[in-house]
Fold:
Amino acid sequence: MFEARRLPAKLILQLIVTLMIVPYLFPLIVMVQGSLAGEGVGNYRAVFEVGAIGTFFKSSVIISASTILIVYVLTMLAAFGFSKLHIRRKEIYFWMILAALTLPEVVLLTPLFATTLALGVYDTYWAVVLPLAALQIPFTVLIARRFVDGVPDALFDAARIDGAGTFTAFRYIVLPMTRPIAAAIVVLTLIGSWNAYLLPLVLIQDPAQQTVTLLPQFFVSQFSNDQTKVLASAVITAIPEIVAYLCLQGLFERGLSAGAIK
Amino acid sequence: MPAFVLVVGILYYCIGETGYLSTLDWDGTSPTPTSVGLGNYEQILQDPIFWQAIWHTVIFFIVTFTAQTAIGFVFAALLHSKVKLGTLYKVIVFTPVVIAPATMAPVFRQMFAADGQLNWTLDHIGLGFLSQPWLAQSSTAMPVIMFITVWNFTGLTFVLYYAAMGQIDPETLEAARTDGASNIRTLVSIVWPGVRGTTVALGMLSVIGALKTFDVPYLVTIGGPNYATEFLGTYIYRISIPSAHVGYGAALSIMLLILALVGAIAVAVRANRKDSETGV
Structure:
């Protein structure tokens, strides 16, 4: 956007970018440097020796994977239904789902707490997976429906003439044609469910089922405020996320943008 | 319509239950809650912490939205200008988006502590007079929360603006330059209006985001010191779970819900009106 033909101008631009990036880099440096203070790599060894990291990661993987699966299947069915099927008053239903976009999760805490206790699913993965999926779906339905709207009706008419039922049409037309938006849905849901903090905090008590977002607090009590080890655990938690992002850079950026552009 | 059943089932059921709870004076476990009708709502309107939390949310929204938009926009413009190592800068700005705020919270508590890295750095670059216990005083705790939020989300605004700028017709830019427009002038008169759709979408996200704020203030400052960083989210949590005033918390939740809906509708309506005025 800026045009800099001469060398000094180029240098100034470069300098501005570098200065602007410093505040973004600083916390990351603090994190790594703090985790190596004191006993150095020994901090990491101490964290691993507690042995809890594996179970926390396993819980996060299970919760994220189930949430993604539920969100994906339900979003696709809903997008197809809203976009192509004739359902009475479907626009009203669609707006009811969209209104849920503004819903802050903290509002749901008490009723969820009471409901999960009553149903006996408190302290299980379900207690977190279902609300997470429900909070994610309004967003994903919105973007997926717009995408399915773009699939020409003629394709469905042709399929029907060839004798395909609604479900066959869904299976062989909608699913293959929505792959680009499916990637966005997966990334959005992954970030949403992996980073979820409040719901696991309230709805899961058993340490064997808690997620990685609760890990720093677990270590605060474990190491009685030994900051270096808490930071080491933060680094260990952040690394998989950063690696996933670096490997799928384009996918992450596209996925998140698809969520925000209407 | 299984999706519909799940969303409407869980979410609307919860709202309904919250609405019912909000009329009770209940501690969450006692078998005989007393109904107080609208008493909880009357109490809210006279609750100074509630108004403080609203006020914090408004300021928080204005500051973080402005900062994120401005920084994200300038970054996007700069990185569209053939600077060296563009990908590296991009990765650094975007990385905070994927890290959970809960994971970064201990890092920020450490960084802004009285003997933390920020003060250490300030001391060593000759700005020692600026160093202070950032999180322990009411006057600086809020700016720290805002900084963390901006740090967290600029990556997103940046990526969106970056994509939007890629769609601006290069010939328009070329024409402006030929007519002698300066860099700044082009940026203000052509690029900024060209990405207006993105700005509106981000505005909407920020309003909802500001009302939903919970993770960062809860984990970094626990709403303190002296309620200086209390938001509706943290207040509801504190009232409902540790203090077990379930009825009052539910009433606060309903207020938050109404505010969120009104906020989102207000932004949407304003955006629409502006669209029809300018004929976009």
Chain B touches chain A through 96 residues (CB under 8 Å). The CA atoms of residues 256 and 262 of chain B lie 10 Å apart. Chain B has a mean pLDDT of 74.
